[in-house]
Amino acid sequence: MYGAxxxxxxxxxSVALSERPGEAPRPPGRGTIRFENRQTQSQVRFILNNGTxxxxxxxxxxxGGVALLDFDNDGYLDxxxxxxxxxxxxxxxxxxxxxxxxxxxHDGTFTDVTQHAGxxxxxYSMGVAAADFDNDGWTxxxxxxxNRNVLYHNxxDGTFTDxxxxxxxxxxxxNGKKLWSVGAAWVxxDNDGYLDxxxxxxxxxxxxNSKVCGEEGKRLSCxxxxxxxxxxxxxxxxHDGTFTDVxxxxxxxxxxxxxxxAAVADYNDDGFIDIFxxxxxxxxFLFRNTNGRxxxxxxxxxxxxxxxxxxxxxxxxxDFRDLNxxxxxxxxxxxxxxxxxxLFRNEGHGFFSAATYQSKLGVRSLTMSGWGIxxxDFDNDGxxxxxxxxxxxxxxxxxYGHHKYRQPNAVFQNQGDGTFQDxxxxxxxxxxxxxxxxxxxxxDLNxxxxxxxxxxxxxxxxEILYNTSIGARHWILIQVEGRKSNRDGIxxxxxxTGQSGLVQFNQxxxxxxxxxxxxxxxxxxxxxxxxxxxxxxxxxxxRIQSVHNVRCDQLLKVMEE
Amino acid sequence: xxxxxxxxxxxxxxxxxxxxxxxxxxxLRLASLDKALQHKDVAGAQTILRExxxxxxxxxxxxxxxxxxxxAQGDLAPAExxxxxxxxxxxEDARGYYQVAQLLLDQGDDQxxxxxxxxxLSYQAEYPEALIIKGQILAMRGRNxxxxxxxEKACKLDPDNAEAHFQLGTLFDSRxxxxxxxxxxxxxxxxxxxDPRPWDYLALNLxxxxxxxxxxxxxxxxxxxxxxxxxxxxxxxxxxxxxxxQNRLTESxxxxxxxxxxxPATRAVHYEHGKLNLLxxxxxxxxxxxxxxxxxxxxxxxxxxxxxxxxxxxxxxxLGEEAxxxxxxxxxxxxxxxxxxxxxx
Lengths: 561, 345
Description:
Helix content of chain A: under 10%
CATH architecture of the domain at 233-335 in chain B: Alpha Horseshoe
Distance between the termini of chain B: 39 Å
Structural class of chain A: mainly beta
Distance between the termini of chain A: 20 Å
Oligomer: heterodimer
Mean pLDDT of chain B: 90
Number of strands of chain B: 0
Largest sheet of chain B: none
Low-confidence stretches of chain A: 1-28
CATH class of the domain at 233-335 in chain B: Mainly Alpha
CATH topology of the domain at 233-335 in chain B: Serine Threonine Protein Phosphatase 5, Tetratricopeptide repeat
Mean pLDDT of chain A: 93
Number of strands of chain A: 40
Low-confidence stretches of chain B: 1-19
Largest sheet of chain A: 4 strands, mixed
Helix content of chain B: over 70%
């Protein structure tokens, strides 16, 4: 599939970044994954406020999207947090409910620039998707929510403008009813060079039909089974700052689910990007893209609709990436305690096989309730690991059983043989912190070649987890810029062949995990390889481009020819 | 309540016989007889009963073990007659009513069993065995809070009553209160280590707590005593599933193969066997398992139709049976699951 002749290499930037001089030579083999929470030093003071009430309405448990984006194009990732609102009014009545944008000061600290940026937000926010939808070189933001979805255009001067109504992406249906949206994904489904918008809708909930569950004084979050599901939205980009709702004509609206998040990848390698939707307690959806025109929902046929036991699980977050370096994107999903985190291995020919047991992820995750998830090579050994943000749904769960509401996050180290080992215990004290974790965004905050993690938590300070892995080795970050393809290059498939011959695969996407948006730059761990034999890019436009003999430990910028 | 019961029993009015004297000196042997029955040692119990009948021919007490032996042998009507004979002789002794209640419950007649348990409790309000039966029946009817109250009372009255702890454990198990279930099953196995059932339940409740080593140990201990009248035919099934989750497929196969032999009319064992064969890429065998599972009804809903359809979808796809794969994919898409609990705990 990657056998086409390489085109001429085009580099427009090659920037050597910190190589951590002075570090001792690393031992061969796999490193120890470690994280250090530098929230205090970072001056990020964000606390996710769900505005809950004694009745614990279902919306209070499902918020918390985070984005890592470089909104000011200074080469460093900034952080955006979504936030809740007062219930039942669903209004951000005070500062504690505001969404927040923190600018990276390049020295480990961040400055809250929310006010200046105009991003305080409205309504009860849930998730966020970041990308440059109008190809102007500045990353825009789409914020989802219960009663408001907002598209913010990045003005390039540190401010954003709400263009939701003009753009036609308010999330209201034909009757003017706003659907509760949780996740969203930017994706160029028709390969026309402009990013389209997929919006994941959850339940038909309103303050008026809100159910109450559990005993008085120790209410629980109600099951989604008590509410009707909703269709998702697909908005096609009209190239003029507006979008057209193509949900019906593409077949997206025909499927009613209880969607929490979406991840995108070309799972069948036909050149068109496909969309996976994690549904809560319902069959998951895999929307197979049919030549950029329509979608067929094939979750059951591809055997990713249900878990290994043939049952729906409380799917929360998802990442859609190649976990075993065979060139085929796999699916890693979080779910609630008792469900186990499903893992589906892409076998090719349109099939997946459930690998939850075989990967050893199942038994390890049995007691965890997961939200955000990401597949990244945290120890730079050439194998993608998994990180999950954990917490039970219900704040009062502990009154009723053995489930803990506040749970530590978890990291699973890829053993390179199809299995994962729970490496949380060795990952440092920051991963022992129990909290009501929700969204995660992944990216390299300090450009040191190690993937960092930002996690939101209800009622607790967000965690700014710097990757301090021991024995982490060489790496490369690749930032692509599309010309015929969308400018962010979302959907670009990258095959990297290291000096040692190790071949790895990844893709450009920001839709990662739960209601969150991660660094658009693509990271590869290189192990002991100091040079890369070849990097091959397959752009959404169909163009295939290669770069040869690339030095490790740098940010490589590649522009589409 | 009592007159109604008596009417139902059609018990003739009898004069209670002061039988204490007729049983004098039998107490120790009766205790041995009871122990033998607890261990399901029917032959041993019969031997002791014969001795007692010779030594104490007029002892009323002997009707109870006689009925229990008959029940253990499957002679249910004579067993019931024996218990009624005892009730006629000692109408105010709760034990006669309890034995009838237990007999009826074992036959699935929970309505009548509840009536007799109530009668027993009317004569002896703090009778642990009758409380256990009543608690079991309430649990079966979904009256969990009341059931829990009675079973906890039974445990309190008789802390060494293994059955009380076992039943309370199963109540917690059914409500996924695994930690509390484990506590009760641990107590039950400490009191009755020869009974494989609480070992099985203990393991099943340790699994969701992530206590895999302890769960495996419990499975091993259960399998070591899994023989005789207390044989737990699902122990191999549960242990095979456990091993499959651990990706120990060869070991899993040994136990799931045995489970299929032991309970061939159970959908769940064929389903799990099919899942295992799918993992082992034995697609043809998985197909046979799946089709067998499909043919077997599962009124208790352990394995839903949806699960079988989805298994068959996957298997047929792997075998290239496209039309069948499409058929079962459509069924998988349209078949629902029972409405789950309204809350998330």
